[in-house]
Hints:
The chain is α+β, with helices and mostly antiparallel strands. It has three helices and ten strands, in the order βαββαβββββββα. The protein has helices spanning 23-28, 79-99, 165-191, and strands spanning 4-8, 34-43, 60-71, 105-107, 110-113, 116-117, 119-125, 130-137, 156-157, 160-161. The strands form three sheets. A five-stranded mixed β-sheet has the order 1-2-3-8-7, covered by helices on one side. A three-stranded antiparallel β-sheet has the order 4-5-6, with helices on one face. A hairpin with a 2-residue loop joins strand 5 (110-113) and strand 6. Helix 2 packs across helix 3. The chain is globular and about 50 Å long.
Amino acid sequence: MTITHKHIKEIFEYDGSQINPSWAFQEFEIYGSSIITWIGPVNITPDNLKDFADVGLEIKSNLMVNFICEFFDQQPPNMRVAYLRQRLLVMIFREILTEYGVESKREGDDIFVENRKLSISIASVSLSSSKIHFALNIEDKGTPNDVETIGLYDIKVNNKQVFTEKNLTELIDKTVNRFIDELETIENDISKTKVL
């Protein structure tokens, strides 16, 4: 499976509509499976909520790193595989945090640092593809009052700020490249494994 990664430098809001099928093709003319990343605010409108458990909740932040993944390799798309890939992405990011010396914990698809919520995520399927949205707070600003949150720029190790504007793109690229490599390695392992 070939996966195209495109990082958009323009700042724009994630409102939940970007998880609709073929968004990358409609907006950026990217064919096939893709991962689109960008930095921007998040304010998910009620009509775009995909998780029944989130109905009535505010999902917002002034600035987040957004990942939108879309895969066309399974027809029909499989919701279980979409969620397994989502968890894989979350665990890869946690692994990278550890490499930066950051302690974190995972609860399902949520990552916490210092017991404060760093990420949001959802997975779903359409008739033709599976989709994942994964996003990380950059700063602890504009998030719901009833949730203790933290941003990447708020994280310190030994009193030193770990993430800044200078290494944010590196963090994004490292996460995407490792995720793509993991998915491609799985495909290669499938292709060379003798069935029982």
